[in-house]
Write a structure and sequence with these properties.
With 347 residues, this protein is an alpha+beta fold. Helices cover 28% and strands 22% of the residues. It is built from 7 helices and 15 strands. Helix 1 runs antiparallel to helix 2, helix 2 runs antiparallel to helix 3 and helix 4 crosses helix 7. The structure holds 2,5-anhydro-1,6-di-O-phosphono-D-mannitol (AHM) and magnesium ion. The site of magnesium ion has 4 residues, from strand 5. It catalyses: beta-D-fructose 1,6-bisphosphate + H2O = beta-D-fructose 6-phosphate + phosphate.
């Protein structure tokens, strides 16, 4: 018959992460799994509200300005609140950093756990009114402890902002949820990248994209070329090279949604390069290091790609403030190496 019987062995995100953690041995206590449960719940809540937005009048401005000086959308505020509340209530967090909040939140002792979560609750929010894909981005650190921290040796921490001013390579997990025709949660806990799709009838994220790996070279470039007049010479030269290649090579296709989660999602699946370089106008770049560049760089590397500022591995940067920005190129290994060559050769 044309109808397939439903699978009776569903791999949910929780089941998958739990089995992964068990495989890692006795050090795992299930705390990360519980923390990820809180993130899943917030993703489901936001997914539902993004869908309802037009009906219940959540579209439009909330009338406040956030720390970056941008106007906040109602959905941004809502998404931030639900995330902070769920992460605090999980009892597994010590420090929270949100794009929407100027200061880090230090969790009070009675609800404190050992993880720090940095997140952009609703990235790409300028796209909300047009119904374009948007997403939540998150990265997870463990608080400093003498035995596990590699770069800076410090005594065990109970949770301070220093716990998140660390290179992205020290994250224990990172991911995003994309709200599109379906909600897709893409996650890495440091051993590859997996994609899960929300089955709305079950209310569960089901493993649909196991072991995502980026093709070593793609055919797509994803830049906001409207910034061309501000670009530095290596970027201009690189873009020229992929648009006017020497035959028999053919030019790349352009795809730019302007919503990082959607642009990175496509790059992970199809390959190619996503870039938001620093330029003469935005001297430090636009994207935020902690909760945009680091999580996406972590996922890209875990999927076999490269993430660089042009001259430096993104995951090696040591942040000095929680909202700092950085230049970003990420995607297929060969494509990103090409742009790095231009940074070495063109000045
Ligand atoms: P936001 O955090 O204010 O939503 O800005 C981040 C977004 C990213 O999703 C996207 O990659 C970028 O800004 C697009 O910027 P631009 O509109 O300058 O191309
Ligand atoms: Mg953002």
């Amino acid at each position: 018959s044309s109808e397939e019987a439903p699978s009776t062995d569903l791999i949910t995100l929780t089941r998958h992460v739990l089995s992964d953690q068990l495989r890692l041995g006795s050090a795992a206590t299930g705390d990360l799994t519980l923390l990820l449960t809180a993130i899943q719940v917030t993703s489901k809540f936001i997914a539902t509200n993004v869908r309802k937005a037009r009906l219940i009048n959540l579209v439009g401005l909330a009338g406040e300005t956030n720390v970056q000086g941008e106007e906040q959308k109602k959905l941004d505020v809502l998404s931030n609140d639900i995330m902070v509340n769920a992460l605090r209530a999980s009892g597994k967090t010590a420090v929270l950093v949100s794009e929407e909040l100027e200061d880090a939140i230090i969790i009070e002792e009675k609800q404190r756990g050992k993880y720090c979560v940095v997140f952009d609750p609703l990235d790409g929010s300028s796209n909300i009114d047009a119904g374009v894909n948007i997403g939540t981005i998150f990265g997870i650190y463990r608080v400093h402890c003498l035995t596990t921290c590699r770069t800076i040796q410090r005594p065990d921490s109970s949770g301070t902002v220093e716990d998140v001013l660390r290179p992205g390579s020290e994250m224990v997990a990172a991911g995003y949820t994309m709200y599109g025709s379906s909600a897709n949660l893409v996650l890495s806990t440091g051993s590859g990248v997996n994609g899960y799709t929300l089955d709305a009838s079950l209310g569960e994220f089901i493993l649909t994209h196991p072991n995502i790996t980026i093709p070593s070279r793609g055919k797509i470039y994803s830049f906001n070329e409207g910034n061309s007049m501000y670009f530095y010479p290596p970027v201009t030269a690189y873009l020229k090279a992929i648009k006017y290649p020497a035959p028999p090579k053919t030019p790349y296709s352009a795809r730019y949604i302007g919503s990082m989660v959607a642009d990175v999602h496509r790059t992970l699946l199809y390959g190619g390069i996503f870039g938001y370089p620093n330029d003469k106008k935005s001297k430090s770049g636009k994207l935020r290091l902690l909760y945009e560049a680091f999580p996406m760089a972590f996922l890209t590397e875990q999927a076999g790609g490269i993430a660089t500022t042009g001259t430096k591995r993104i995951l090696d940067i040591i942040p000095t403030s929680i909202h700092e920005r950085c230049s970003v190129f990420l995607g297929s290994r060969d494509d990103v190496q090409d742009v790095m060559k231009f940074y070495k050769e063109v000045s």
